[in-house]
Amino acid sequence: MRPQLCLTLTGSTLDEDLQILNNYRSQVDMAELRVDFLEDEEKSKVSAFPQMAGVPCILTIRRTIDGGKWEASEECRSALFEKIFSECDELESSNNFAFVDFEEDFHSVILETAAKATGARIIRSVHDFEKPVTDIIERVKSLQNGTDEIAKIAFMPLGLKDVTNLFQQAAQLEGDHILLAMGPYGIPSRILAAKLGNYLTFTSPAAANSLGNLAHLDPVTMNEIYHFRQITKDTAIYGITGFPLAATSSPKLHNDGYKLHNMDAVYVPVKAEHVEEALEFNKTVNLTGMSVTIPHKEKVMPMLVEISSEVKEIGACNTIVKRADGWHGYNTDAPGFTRALKEFLGVENLKGRKVAVIGAGGAACAIIYAIKKLGAETCIFNRTVSKAETLAKKFDCEYAGLDESVLPKLKEYSEIIVQTTSKGMNSAEPANADNDPIFFYDFDGHEQIYDIVYVPEVTPVMGRAAAAGCRVCNGFDMLRYQGYEQFDLFTGVKY
Ligand code: NAP
To answer: What is the sign of the dihedral through the CA atoms of 35, 41, 42 and 46?
Structure first.
């Protein structure tokens, strides 16, 4: 059986919870009612909820020590459980809670008997919000304790290695269980619930932030980006690693591709502080193709059995593929940028053309490599002149700083300007000296501006250039095309 997708409901009233469930009804299989989030007067009406919900429900009254909001005494909590079970429908168990969550240290023969009499199955849970649980196999056995209870372990990993350990040990487990690593490191444990053999995985509404630190994904993301319901133990796994690996649009691009080509595959974010940890995770879950982003693009190189000529020349690897003899490294930023720039300019090469590259960071390396391959003369302009100089020596081009003193040089190279700094990224303001790296330069309309940044869609420098009559383009196509190249490398199929 595939893992069930369970929506955790943390509304303050039952009506609010029902409304939230209705918003996601087609996306989930079941719901967890977090009674500890309800207003006091609502808590007395809880037994009616499963019938209102019309899906299997988990009854959870989570104590503060386990990360919940139940502050009253254990006697009060037991009394509420007892009341809920006593009000259950004796004739129709589908009107009752299908599951009840009792913590590892909460044992009450009376309540367990009462719960079972209403048709509820016990989830026996452990939560650690501070540190990882490492002895997974022993702990699951002890939670199950020879009964048909579902063992649940949820913990906060300190790094990816704790998540890897979870996957390693899960492979040896029997019986129903729910294993979850919380927080951003743990996202693979939610998406790859089928690989963990999990009975269910938890999701939250997109807007819910009461559970934000748990890094629940919302049901729409689970289904529409990760195709959660199609993932089985046999599904091929690919992913992206980086640190801190914040927002990335790569999962959507790759997962859309698998769907388009009817492939049984999934692409997941694998946050790793150290790239070695990502490779260990890959080995454990049999992940065979990975996008590599900041800050691992250089550090991954010594771990590869072979690197492409592009990786060698650029000095950065953004794609690794597992073959029989080990990991092979590629750089798809350069071909992705080449394709996007050629399309934008409507040319096949840049022979006899001059190109200004603004910035000398990691992305600039691949871009200068690509521009040189297209045959252009290049000048690199960077705030830290020494970095521009290093790149200029490497790729045999000119370099300069990034202030008014370089205006004559920038004018000389102004026909095509490729902006690669992060200065305008995420800026919603019109161009100014703080978000536009060449604010000192006045466009006259003849320039063509390719900005590799794509958030916002129109970056400050693009907006200013377009207002002066220049043709402009953002970096979204570069991102897309480098992803297509990765897709080809991972799967052997053209995107
Ligand atoms: P990086 O290695 O950190 O380099 C950052 C560059 O921006 C450096 O040249 C840095 O200059 C410059 N910079 C940063 N703040 C500045 C400021 N206030 N004033 C002037 N220059 C400043 O980053 P990266 O990997 O090259 O990425 C750069 C940008 O490209 C990011 O926004 C990233 O999202 C985007 N990107 C897009 C794609 C795509 O597919 N479209 C691919 C890769 C990257 P200094 O050397 O003086 O610090």
So the answer is: positive
